[in-house]
Amino acid sequence: MSYIEVNNLWKTYGDQVVLENVNLSVEKGEFVTIVGASGCGKSTFLRMLLGQEQPSKGEIVHDGKPLAPEPDQHRGIVFQKYSVFPHLTVLNNVILGVEFTKNRLFGKLFGASKKQAIEKARVLINAVGLSHAENKYPHELSGGMQQRLAIAQSLIKEPEILLLDEPFGALDPGIRADMHELVLNLWRETGTTIFMVTHDLKEGFYLGTRLWVFDKLRHDLHAPERFGAGVTYDLPIGRCEERLYESIQTNVDNTARKAEAA
Amino acid sequence: MKRLINVHPQPALRIGLTLIPFVLALIAYVVASDIRLQENPNDKLLPGLTAIGDAIDRMAFQESKRTGTILFWDDTLASMQRIAIGISLSALLGLVVGIGNGLVPLIRANLSSFVAILSLIPPMAILPVLFIVFGLGELSKVMLIIFGTAPFIMRDMQQRVLELPPEQLIKAQTLQANTWQIICRVVLPQVLPRLIEAVRLSLGAAWLFLIAAEAIASTEGLGYRIFLVRRYLAMDVILPYVAWITILAFMFDLSLKQLSQWLFPWYHKK
Ligand SMILES: Nc1ncnc2c1ncn2[C@@H]1O[C@H](COP(=O)(O)OP(=O)(O)OP(=O)(O)O)[C@@H](O)[C@H]1O
Ligand SMILES: [Mg+2]
To answer: Which helix (H) or strand (E) segment is B268 a member of?
Structure first.
């Protein structure tokens, strides 16, 4: 039995089939990158992994048990934006995860326990390179710094699974490369299982141990919502050729174009 | 030549432009008052500045022969107390109900429509009910202010909570927060500056209801005084009272704005 098993997973919204019959299994510590045309259900899939949404059919099994039906501390997430709290400084954003756990009543720590939390948080803030900005509010940070903060904030819970939904989509290429290093390092150090959605196929190939392509297997030009997407490629990374890369890019682009036309 | 929308006044010019309408209004008043007083020195409609000064002196600096206290300050204190209690309770109610409705689907299902309907009842229409139920004392006046402002604040707060990005609430859950912790650490601090905004917007309504309630049943208060001296056409008292109410309203508003900027710097720089 694998660490995470996705069995016969379907997701529909009303008449619209978003995902159909997805079957996957993932081992602990894998770094899965997910690509696919816009609107094909990548975020929906992550939301189900997170417990924010439930499958319409089928199930996701985590460590032999059905996935908890609401978000919890075992699964961290970084969104493309709005991941950090605008009313808290960098340091307070990061210690929040400790405060919620240690003070179940109000979620606020004082004195010695707060000092402890701060020390723990500083290690992470340092790891993501934000030490100089500890006391800044998110609106004073650049987009890249905000995403670093979001990552540090998630990691303080030492999540078993880390979900990243286009976390670097809004960043420019130079900063993106830095972020890749950061994520790879943190992944190696923590051994977390990572699922990362990206629009950038290169990024998908560069990061991670495994690449999934979400795409529609069947198209109905008159009713595009009739068929959902599934996983059309499941590739161990580092063992594929340039031709395959190009063919995936073409497929994804085609689906995107069809969706656009519909 | 720049477009009109791109021309910004220098600080000195801006202050000047700001002052012009006030000065013009004052001049217009003095001129009109002069013309009327020349025709009829006993005219009460537009008293001259000296008459107004005398009235201010009489009301605000000399003890009333009847009560032995200074009426102007009695009135001010009574009105301020009512409005402060009324608006504070409204804010508290608005915050609690608004967060409940905005954050907890079960409460929203239970209360949201009720609050929406409640806010449609014209408060003045139920003023008689308040007088009957709560008597003619302080309680019914405070209740009218609450009734007139709380539903708006509740709905506004609900809206503000619903506007928080869902990502934040999910994020908090992945940090192991329970519902109460989410309220304390995520929702409350973010809607407090908005609560202050809602209160600032409701203050106009609060004054309206205060003065209405005082006009109908009271023994002191700024609104009571205005309606009392109306019987003698005492414009020399009414005008300074109106000006004073305006100044008070302005000060309330300004101090709330300053308070918010001081307490929530992250909100104002966003
Ligand atoms: N709550 C919802 N109700 C109805 N339809 C939804 C809902 N959430 C998503 N969808 C639909 O499901 C489809 C998949 O959406 P999803 O956000 O998962 O796409 P995505 O692959 O993440 O796209 P993108 O790359 O643009 O982020 C879309 O067509 C979207 O309109
Ligand atoms: Mg998405």
So the answer is: helix B265-269
Q: Which residues of B touch A139 (CB under 8 A)?
A: 266, 269-270
Residue A182: count other Cβ atoms within 10 Å of its Cβ. 18
Half-sphere exposure of A257 (CA within 13 A, CB side): 6
Q: Domain residues of chain A, as ranges?
A: 85-158
What kind of fold does domain B71-269 have according to CATH?
Answer: MetI-like fold (1.10.3720)
Rounded distance between C-alpha atoms, residue A173 and residue A143, angstroms: 12
| Residues of A whose CB is below 8 A from B181 | 100, 104, 106-107
Q: Report d(CA A94, CA A111) in Å as an integer.
A: 17
Contact A73 B174 (CB under 8 A): yes
8 Å CB contact between B226 and B238: yes
Say how far apart CA A130 and CA A74 lie, in whole Å.
24
B174 inside 8 A of chain A by CB: yes
Q: How many Å apart are CA A206 and CA A168, to the nearest integer? A: 14
Give the pLDDT mean for B37-58.
90
Neighboring chain A residues of B189 at a CB cutoff of 8 Å:
87
Collapsed DSSP state (helix, strand, coil) of residue A140? helix
Domain ranges of chain B: 71-269
pTM higher than 0.90 = no
Q: pLDDT digits over B115-173, tens only?
A: 999 999 999 999 999 999 999 888 999 999 999 999 999 999 999 999 999 999 999 99
Say yes or no for a CB contact (<8 Å) between B181 and A107: yes
B105 touches chain A (CB under 8 A): no
- ipTM score for this prediction: 0.88
Enter the tokens of residue B195: 């609560």
Q: Please state at what angle helix A143-155 crosses helix A173-190, rounded to 10 degrees.
A: 10
